[in-house]
């Protein structure tokens, strides 16, 4: 399903440009336009899901695909564990400053990240 007027649905469809770094049948990964770390990629499901709070058991396979896409992106950037590593973040709702209502997994890394939970 593609939601009308959804920014990330348009990026997945190629109707808006993005710098894609990984694609699979169910996922699409592209560089964040305003990177908070040397590696900052967004992994999204091709199918519109609003955010992580509405995920159900039926979404399990696509969630696993998103985690495997994140690993592929990080490994390709030289951030494979156990030597390096990276941080994965889902923002949900206003308190998290979630701004785009299409599920996206932030993949952050490339330097020792500040704090345990912050990204700035
Ligand atoms: P959120 O704050 O919703 O968790 O994350 C949304 C992310 O999308 C932000 O980090 C923001 O920089 C990124 N973003 C917003 N619009 C665009 C865009 O048009 N292209 C790309 N590549 N990233 C975007
Ligand atoms: Zn969407």
The CA-CA distance between the termini, in Å, is: 33 Å
Bound molecules: guanosine-5'-monophosphate, zinc ion
The run of helices and strands is HEEEHEE
Helix fraction, binned, reads 10-25%
Number of strands: 5
What low-confidence regions span 5 or more consecutive residues with pLDDT below 50? none
Largest sheet: 5 strands, antiparallel
Q: Strand content of the residues, in percent?
A: 15-25%
Shape: globular
Task: Figure out the total of helices.
Answer: 2
**CA-based gyration radius:** 14 Å
Q: Can you give the mean pLDDT?
A: 95
Order of strands, main sheet, comes to 1-2-3-5-4
Which structural class should the secondary elements be placed in? alpha+beta
Characterise this structure.
The protein is α+β, with helices and mostly antiparallel strands. The chain has a domain at 7-36. Helices cover 20% and strands 21% of the residues. The chain has two helices and five strands. It has a five-stranded antiparallel β-sheet, covered by helices on one side. A hairpin with a 3-residue loop joins strand 1 and strand 2 (27-31). The longest helix has 17 residues, at 60-76. The chain is globular. The chain starts with 6 loop residues before the first helix and ends in an 11-residue tail after the last strand. The model has no long low-confidence stretch (mean pLDDT 95). Guanosine-5'-monophosphate binds next to strand 2.
């Amino acid at each position: 399903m593609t939601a009308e007027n959804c920014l990330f649905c348009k990026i997945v469809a190629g109707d808006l440009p993005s710098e894609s770094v990984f694609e699979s049948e169910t996922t699409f990964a592209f560089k964040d336009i305003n990177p908070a770390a040397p590696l900052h990629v967004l992994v999204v499901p091709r199918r519109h899901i609003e955010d992580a709070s509405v995920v159900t058991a039926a979404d399990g396979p696509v969630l696993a695909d998103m985690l495997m896409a994140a690993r592929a992106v990080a490994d390709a950037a030289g951030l494979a564990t156990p030597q390096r590593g990276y941080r994965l973040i889902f923002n949900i709702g206003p308190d998290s400053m979630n701004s785009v209502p299409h599920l996206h997994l932030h993949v952050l890394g490339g330097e020792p990240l500040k704090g345990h939970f912050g990204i700035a």
